[in-house]
Amino acid sequence: MSPRFDAIGLVVSDMAASVSFYRRLGFTFPEGAEHEPHTEAELPGGLRLLLDTEDTVRSFNPGWQPPSGGGRTSLALRCDTPGEVDTVYEELLGAGHRGDLKPWDAFWGQRYAVVLDPDGNGVDLFAPLPQERSQLNAGGRPA
Predict the structure, then answer these.
(1) CA atoms within 13 A on the CB side of 139
(2) Positive/negative CA dihedral, 29, 27, 25, 107
(3) Structure pTM?
(4) How does pLDDT run across 27-60, given as a tens digit for each residue?
(5) Are 18 and 120 contacting, i.e. CB atoms less than 8 angstroms apart?
């Protein structure tokens, strides 16, 4: 028997804001999830995205404190086209969310941008660039 990867969990300060943010990105949460202390969205391949409020985590780990400083975790979402990266980025900023890195043509062959969820977690948006635009990928980051 060996453990297998099953879920990604995020601790959130405001469940309603987080559910709204991730729904804008296509995650499907149950109706009323924004009012729950825990919710889940099924991901492709059977994985799940779990959201728990800070109070929920403190209910079983009373000493838990939110991390301070910069984040070390991000979720990466593949878009269908480079233009979709720009569109989704602008839609999220228009809805009041913060951008961390404006869309750009990365040297590793992707249109790439980063937005922040309501708790400051990075959400990478990316799409492969057409081959002729990504020829400068000289051993850089894989697509």
Answers:
(1) 0
(2) positive
(3) 0.84
(4) 999 999 999 999 999 999 999 999 999 999 999 9
(5) no
92 HSE (CA, 13 A, CB side): 32
Residue in the block written with tokens 């249109």:
111
CA dihedral (5, 11, 15, 17) positive or negative: negative
Please, which pLDDT band fits residue 140 given cuts at 50, 70 and 90? Answer: very low
Cα separation values, 29 from 22, 23, 77, Å: 9, 7, 17
The residue to which tokens 């601790």 are assigned: 11
Signed CA dihedral, 54, 55, 60, 61: sign only: positive
Residues 63-116: tens digit of each pLDDT: 999 888 767 788 999 999 999 999 999 999 999 999 999 999 999 999 999 999
What's the token pair of residue 72?
């070390």
Asked if 113 contacts 76 with a C-beta cutoff of 8 angstroms, the reply is no
